[in-house]
Design a protein that fits this description.
membrane, about 75% helix, Major facilitator superfamily-domain-containing protein, Growth Hormone, Chain: A, 2 domains, about 575 residues, MFS
């Protein structure tokens, strides 16, 4: 006689409560030949005929996790994760590729220090300013088409950068490239969040790769750019980027699954009307102009003078626009950055911990590359070779981080990351142009990528596992927006410090002073990441293989429901109402 769904659920709960020592009670087959998941059968008995405990029976299931249904095969799944990693890496990849050839570009196009900084800062600025708005666009009009369009656009405009003839052309097109990168990140986050709903080792691995995009993109961009520039010239680096992203675009047509935020049956016309009605155009404009004016004033202040009327005007107007943006988001019914997302205490403090560290990382990488070119007179290829250990270490640490998230307290990982950041930047301030590479630069590169990998793995896993599913894409978009804008502000601030120090009499006798002060900005930023660590309350994240067997780590009750198909069907019916 078949038990009722309520009894099955209660039975499953009691099994889990008793642990591995509890024995699964025999039950009969359900209707239509379905099993209730704990039925005693010949397969659930040992060779001696005795019944296998429920816990051990469940542990025979694959602990790795099942392939998401949206992927036809494992090859498509791996290719998609690679594409998603490319999406989050696009902005930092371009910044890294540009950072090691800035001296060559500056000499060729006759650029000032501020204009050189804007090659990378403009990309980060527009990527951050447009990302939330384009995230709304992707959810309403289609994640897949926006992703493919963004990849193709990135390839086209990278090619246009290769033919730049003046500083204005260079900086403006680099800014447009930032918009292209903003098109691909929100769809990637949305699809990954929907595909990997259940915590598992498979999800940990996928998000570990995804998290590697930001820090490792910068390093690999630097290396490939250095090789291309050595063989040809700096323009070849951007042609190489255009070719790579053209290949990625073709791959995306096959690899990106159609996982959309809207109902499949909803017509395009209705979605377009919804977009026009709900898109936060005011918030988008306030973000773009607010952050743009603020960053521009910080960057241009040292060269044009902090007392110059246009610098003061840009600084004040930029800050006022950002304040207005905060108030606007509180009253607009469909805001770009809903205030309620910040009510999650851990999310807020994790962001406040990881953001300064990433700002320090990007700023230090930029000035280290510039230092190698200008102070040490290294060629772009030599710079790339010097940065190679960071790429190798980054891959290793990323695998380690993805493997220990479910075993080591994640607050401890954040602490280790912050310590690594500050140690890396202290080493850079102590070096001189003739210092031994292995004594200062090498350990600094190894330590900085520890901070980046640990921080990114923790924050991305928190967004994709601990937050409700309807908030994951939003939180991921906010995360990437803040990191991009933070990178632009960090580059602007460190440039202001560098240019100011370069004009002092002391810098005439000691050319290291401007670089030291630029690296000290990174020390201050990495130290700021410690301020909010005491308020972070994190344990482990992601399933251990043992916990993954049950299907959840959060509660035994959820596992019990997973053992009762009838209870699941009732739950499913409620959700569809």
């Amino acid at each position: 006689m078949t038990e009722s769904p309520e009894k099955q659920a209660a039975s499953a709960k009691s099994i889990l409560a008793d642990g591995d020592e509890a024995k699964a009670r025999p039950t009969s087959r359900l209707r239509d030949g379905e099993s209730d998941g704990v039925t005693t059968s010949p397969d659930s008995r040992g060779h001696d005929g005795r019944e296998i405990p429920a816990g051990k029976l469940m542990s025979s299931k694959p602990a790795f996790g099942e392939r998401p249904a949206c992927f036809k095969n494992t090859w498509q799944e791996v290719a998609f994760v690679f594409q998603a990693t490319n999406a989050t890496a696009a902005s930092s990849f371009f910044q890294g590729a540009s950072a090691i050839i800035t001296a060559s570009i500056g000499r060729d196009l006759g650029m000032s220090q501020g204009e050189i900084t804007w090659i990378t800062a403009s990309t980060a600025l527009t990527a951050g300013a447009f990302q939330l708005g384009l995230g709304q666009l992707a959810d309403l009009l289609g994640r897949r088409i926006i992703f493919i369009t963004g990849m193709a656009s990135f390839s086209a405009f990278a090619l246009l950068v290769a033919f730049a003839q003046n500083p204005f052309w260079m900086d403006v097109v680099c800014g447009i490239l930032g918009v292209c990168t903003a098109m691909v990140v929100p769809p990637a986050i949305g699809i990954m969040g929907a595909a990997y709903e259940q915590p598992s080792k498979r999800k940990n691995l996928a998000f570990s790769a995804f998290s590697a995009g930001n820090p490792l993109g910068f390093v690999f961009g630097s290396i490939l750019s250095g090789i291309a520039t050595k063989i040809f010239n700096w323009r070849a680096a951007y042609i190489l980027i255009a070719i790579l992203w053209a290949i990625f675009t073709v791959m995306a047509i096959w690899t990106i699954p159609k996982v959309e935020a809207y109902p499949p049956q909803q017509p395009f016309r209705d979605r377009l009307k919804t977009f026009v009605r709900t898109f936060d155009s005011v918030g988008t404009v306030l973000t773009i102009f607010g952050t743009g004016l603020l960053t521009a004033s910080i960057t241009l202040g040292p060269t044009d003078g902090w007392k110059a009327a246009h610098i003061i005007a840009m600084l004040i107007i930029g800050m006022v626009l950002l304040v207005i943006f905060v108030f606007w988001e509180r009253v607009y019914p469909h805001p770009l950055m809903p205030p309620h997302i910040w009510k999650d205490r851990n999310f807020t403090f994790i962001i406040l911990t990881c953001l300064p560290g990433y700002m320090a990382f990007i700023s230090a990488q930029f000035w280290l590359s510039f230092f190698m070119q200008e102070a040490q007179n290294l060629s772009p290829l030599d710079v790339a070779v010097h940065l190679l250990p960071q790429a190798i270490a980054g891959l290793i640490y990323n695998i380690i981080a993805g493997s220990v998230l479910h075993r080591i307290n994640n607050t401890l990982l954040l602490v280790l990351g912050s310590v690594a950041y500050i140690m890396a930047n202290v080493l850079l301030t102590l070096m001189k142009p003739d210092s031994l590479y292995w004594a200062f630069v090498f350990p600094s590169l190894i330590l900085s990528v520890v901070g980046a990998d640990f921080h990114f793995n923790v924050v991305n896993m928190y967004v994709m596992q601990s937050l409700p599913s309807h908030q994951q894409a939003l939180a991921g978009g906010i995360l990437n927006t803040l990191f991009r804008l933070g990178a632009a502000v960090a580059l602007g601030a460190s440039t202001a410090v560098f240019v100011s120090a370069k004009g002092t009499p002391e810098a005439m006798t000691d050319p290291m002073i401007p670089y030291k002060q630029a690296f000290q900005v990174s020390i201050g930023l990495s130290a700021a990441s410690f301020l909010f660590l005491p308020f972070v309350r994190l344990g482990t994240q992601g399933h251990s293989p043992r916990d993954a067997d049950v299907g959840t780590r959060d509660s035994k009750e959820e596992g019990a429901v997973a053992l009762a198909p009838a209870a699941l069907s009732v739950e499913s019916t409620d959700e569809n109402r």
